[in-house]
Amino acid sequence: MKLEYRWLLPSVLLGDPDEGRPVRRSTRDWIVDIVVFVAACGLAVLTLPDLDGLARPLRISEQVFGALACASVWLRRRWPVTLSVVLTLLSAVFVMVGGGAALALFTVAVHRPFKISGIVLGLNLLTVFPLAWWRPDELGPLWTAGVMVLIVLLVFGWGIVVRSRRQLVYSLREQAKVAGREARRLERERIAREMHDVLAHRISILSLHAGALEFRPDAPAEQIAKAAGAIRESAHQALQDLREVIGVLRQPGEQGELLPERPQPTLADLPSLVEESREAGMEVELRLDVEQAPESLGRNAYRIVQEALTNARKHAPGALVRVGMEGGRGEGLTIAVRNKIGWPSAIPGTGTGLIGLAERAELAGGRLEHRRTPEGDFVLEAWLPWQT
């Protein structure tokens, strides 16, 4: 536990909550730890010539503490700060501990913030001078201390660079995750807008056919059968659309796989939309003076006309609806829908249709306006950019 060794060191050195926790090593961690252990052993072996001339007890002590220092590097992931402090203090007396102390300092620089690793660095720099005076090189203690200070700073700086790189990679990964979640959220919002337009259109047609049956119970059997078939078909299409949007909006990991998004309508499907509205009892005039448009542009134009026809069915049932569309590359696509203002039908509205159309037009880089004319008409006009 942490409290078992807090009395040994200043609390600022043990401020990281991960200190002392069990570590599960991956295959890569095992490889790195083996390399570090071999490196510690190699550094210890390089210092063996420095033991010449020492008394036998001191030489044995150097070898024992050097071996323990090499073995202790396996604890650097679990107790990096504690290990570094202990090895640093020992390196002030024993030369063979220096390699393990350097690797422990590197670990602290990589895995701990500077408020902790900086104190450990300061302790390493302080312990350089006793060893330099106790075991000086042939060139003197000042030269020895200078070389050791340079080595300590290089090891610490290397650790800081590795830590900064890891933090950068982690930050980029987090940004990518956030961007992915935002992209999924925007895509779901787009699908929700699409489904609002589609379902509102389907249900309004269904309501018109049902209303015709309600107000014309004495209609010929052929007309009743045709209206009933249209109701069945509209209800089936509405359920199919709803099933698809539920499948697309399903979160990953839930039961079932994401259903593929069906092909989106384009300008080529606009006559079929108008014909469907006519079969539901609407009077629609279509003037389409447009060459073949890009798929995204055609889809946006189709949805605008679809929502405009749905609004006309809701708020001006029985009124003539004139739909006009013209434009070309470079000049943009202009859409105009005009109908007389009549009595609203019994079909409830959410009040978000025109708002959704304005958002769709703005997202496409265009604009949408609607107004009432002095002649008593409701006019909806939209302009969408058409790149050359």
From TrEMBL:
Positions of the Signal transduction histidine kinase subgroup 3 dimerisation and phosphoacceptor domain: 187-253
InterPro entries: HATPase_C_sf, Sensor_HK_TwoCompSys, Sig_transdc_His_kin_sub3_dim/P
Enzyme nomenclature, EC number: 2.7.13.3
Keywords: ATP-binding, Kinase, Membrane, Nucleotide-binding, Phosphoprotein, Transferase, Transmembrane, Transmembrane helix, Two-component regulatory system
One Pfam family from the record: HisKA_3
Record field: transmembrane: 30-48, 83-109, 116-134, 140-162
GO molecular function list: kinase activity
Catalytic activity: ATP + protein L-histidine = ADP + protein N-phospho-L-histidine
Protein name stated in the entry: histidine kinase
Organism: Nonomuraea mangrovi
